[in-house]
TrEMBL record:
InterPro entries: cTAGE_MIA/OTOR. The keyword Transmembrane applies. It comes from Mustela putorius furo. The keyword Signal applies. GO terms for cellular component: endoplasmic reticulum exit site; endoplasmic reticulum membrane. This is Transport and Golgi organization protein 1 homolog isoform X3. GO terms for biological process: endoplasmic reticulum to Golgi vesicle-mediated transport; protein secretion; vesicle cargo loading. Residues 1-19 form the signal peptide. Residues 76-242 form a coiled coil. Keywords: Coiled coil, Membrane, Signal, Transmembrane, Transmembrane helix. The chain crosses the membrane at residues 41-61. The gene is LOC123390715.
Length: 314
């Protein structure tokens, strides 16, 4: 009833913030109000409107906006049974998760071992092919080097033979000089034997001409052999340089292969450490999922810089 009256006054007064001049004019003529009386009346109207609004809001809150709490008809035994069922389901789920994680780890290990085996087989095949190619090149170079050595010895023998022939020619030259000197001396002293000596002299001259021709031929052959010897020396030097270069390349390849092997060994060790660390993390996660009383302390493998006591936080 109070709310209805307040609503009536609100509709009648329209808005309390704007003054209604008709209300003042409806008063009788002998009744005069001063400015203070009008102010008091407006304050009363504003207070009444505020109280009516509050009452209306309280009415709406208690009747329309009221929400009844839900009533659950569940007993304590049913709640315990549900909790036990949930615990059993959690245990089954944990067992299934652990089995699937173990299967995943085994599959990952098998795949990793197969991958490493394939990589090692490919590396061994490649190294064998490189070694076979290097052995073939080395055998070819050694055979060529042996052939060059044989040719060098043959040329040295020919040079020795030519040097012996040159010594003989020098000896013949000396003999010729001696004969010429002897003939000149004999020409002055024995003119009666001139014809015989001239014959001998002509014979010796013919021999000298033949010897000169032979000397020229031998000199040309010696020059030719010298050029061949120089060419063979240059070829031998070039072959030695190529042989040394290929040996250096093979040594660098062997060093590179050794460094690759060391690198892969380090990678394998690092991967094993990472696997141990991941296993430890998995055990820690499984312990966090278990109840507090079932946690058992163990040493942490791998990564000594990241080891902390179990009772400390991560």
């Amino acid at each position: 009833m109070m709310v209805q009256r307040l609503l009536f006054w609100l509709v009648l007064l329209q808005c309390p913030s704007s003054p209604n001049p008709n209300l003042v004019l409806s008063l009788p003529d002998p009744f005069c109000l001063g400015p203070h009386g009008i102010e008091v009346l407006w304050k009363l109207l504003i207070l009444t409107a505020f109280l009516g609004t509050c009452a209306f809001l309280i009415y709406l809150w208690r009747t329309i906006l009221a929400i009844k709490p839900r009533q659950y008809e569940v007993t304590l035994d049913q709640i315990k049974m549900k909790i036990n069922n949930l615990k059993n389901e959690n245990r089954d789920l944990e067992k299934n998760i652990a089995s699937w994680e173990e299967k995943a780890r085994e599959a990952k290990k098998q795949a990793e071992t197969k991958r490493e085996h394939k990589r090692s087989l490919a590396g061994v095949r490649k190294l064998k092919a490189q070694d076979a190619l290097a052995d073939q090149e080395l055998r070819a170079l050694t055979s060529k080097n042996q052939e060059l050595k044989e040719r060098k010895t043959f040329l040295e023998d020919q040079c020795n033979a030519l040097s012996s022939k040159e010594a003989e020619l020098n000896l013949l030259k000396k003999k010729l000089d001696m004969v010429v000197e002897f003939s000149e001396n004999r020409k002055l002293t024995a003119e009666e034997k001139l014809e015989e000596k001239l014959y001998e002299l002509n014979a010796t001259k013919n021999e000298l001409l033949a010897a000169d021709k032979y000397l020229k031929v031998t000199e040309e052959e010696m020059e030719k052999y010298r050029q061949e010897v120089e060419e063979m020396r240059e070829e031998l030097q070039e072959s030695n340089l190529t042989f040394n270069h290929k040996i250096a390349v093979q040594e660098r390849n062997a060093l590179a292969n050794w460094m690759k092997a060391r690198y892969w060994e380090a990678r394998i060790m690092q991967q094993s450490r990472e696997n141990a660390y991941l296993k430890y993390r998995l055990r820690m996660m499984q312990r966090e999922m278990l109840p507090v009383g079932s946690v058992r302390r163990e040493l942490m493998p791998g990564r000594p810089e990241s080891q902390k006591p179990v009772w400390q936080g991560h």
